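Bench notes, afternoon.
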Amino acid sequence: MRVEQVVRSEAEKAASKAKAAAKQQPPSTTRRRPGRPKGSKNTPKADVTLTPELGRITSMLDALLKLIAGCIRLTYLVLDGHFGNHNALHMARQSNLHLISKLRCDAALYFPSTGPYAGRGPRRKYGRKVDYDHIPEQYLKKTTVEGHMQTCLYQTHLLHKEFAQPLNVVIIAKTNLRTQARAHVLLFSSDLELAYTSLVDYYSLRFQIEFNFRDAKQYWGLEDFMNVTPTGVTNAANLSLFMVNVAYRLRADVHPRDPDYSVLDLKADCRGYKYVEETIKMLPEKPEPVLFAKILNQVAGLGRIHASQPSFSFS
């Protein structure tokens, strides 16, 4: 729905290089003294300074919300695991949207404390840390088994020390019943009332965007255009993504009678029809409609991946 060319500033490039270099350095062998460093101060989690990346997303999001105001009411903003942090959640809430994203698999999550008040100081906020290999059965929502793979879905409200609010977390735990190997995925939302089925479905929809970009690169030249001006790049990128939608729509008409019909078949049909039409224009007399339709179908099928012939025309 919205595409914008991004040119990173020199400061952003330097920060990205510094971050990458820090990851490559070996961990320090010197141990820090236990306890809180002297002179450190509390930083309110509500005080968030958006990064340039989040600032760009905010401007695009505000423009989109303004464009569709009164037509479509959006509730959720789905972002990948790169944005599974408090800053992105704060950005989404500023736009009156709930964030749906993914946490790192080793994220330190805690159950809310349910113990009695100690009688002095603030009440304890964080309870025991979540052990992903031993999640209490009371939070289990669904279990499915396909072959030797077992999938368990858990849902509960958990706390993270980097987030200012509780999180609606869905834990998707997979177990290989033969080897007992385990793996898990942590999805979360700022909407504490969102059901686990909807949360998983909404996050799964994010992958359709990846498929759209894949098709735009593979079939419609998103990686191949040579434009360099801002307007040219914007037009080329939008045209590539627009053609993905057009191709999906045309394929939907053919799939009921030809389930294997692909984008390459569609492009071969269109190219064949164009060749035939341009050739027919050079003839002194136009062939009979029956012969013309036969020629169209025959030539259009020459470059197809699948052998079945099309039964429609682009007239």
